[in-house]
Each structure stands twice: as structure tokens, then as C-alpha cells.
Write the C-alpha cells for this entry.
Amino acid sequence: MKSSRRQFMILSATTLAVATTGQALAADPMVAETEPQAIGLGYKADTTKVDATKYPKHNAKQNCGNCMLYKGGAAAGGCQIFAGKQVAAKGWCSAYAAKA
Ligand code: SF4
């Protein structure tokens, strides 16, 4: 197998694994609060900055780090909602679902 084909196959397998699990790669960019999807979901990198008037059911104990859709570590990581990007562990969006 030629090197470029081999590299393509490895990259494809990695991409598929990431897409399937929602895990982000360390090189994946952080979600910006100004992105249309982030705005639509009220995403904030700091859960204490969430608009309480717009999201009255939100509380500061809710964050990506304890969300069922979070696939990251202590500081940041993947989220099944924001494919190919990382969210802050201390962040929050309106798709929040508490871990069981
Ligand atoms: S779905 Fe969960 S992990 Fe993803 S951004 Fe929203 S609160 Fe964070």
C-alpha cells in the first residue's frame, strides 16, 4: 500500500471513530460563542455567563463536564452536538442533558 493511500485510510478511520463517538481530537478548534449553532443553542464557555432570562431552567451546577453528551476531559473535549469541535468543560448549552 502506498504511503499516501495508507495515510488516507488511517485518517478516514480516525474521522469515522471521532464522528461515531463524539470525541474531539486535541487539534479540533474550540466552539466559539459567536458561531450560529452556538448562538442558537445559547452556548457559553462559562456556565455562569448563561442568560438566565432566556434559559430560566439553567443552573450554574449544569456544565458540559457533567452533561451526557460530553466526551472530553477536565478542561475541554468533544460534544455530540458540536461535531469536530471542542467545548469547554465549564461550558453549557440548551441541549444539556444531565448524566444519569
Ligand atoms: S450538549 Fe452538553 S456537552 Fe454539548 S455543549 Fe451542550 S451542555 Fe455542553
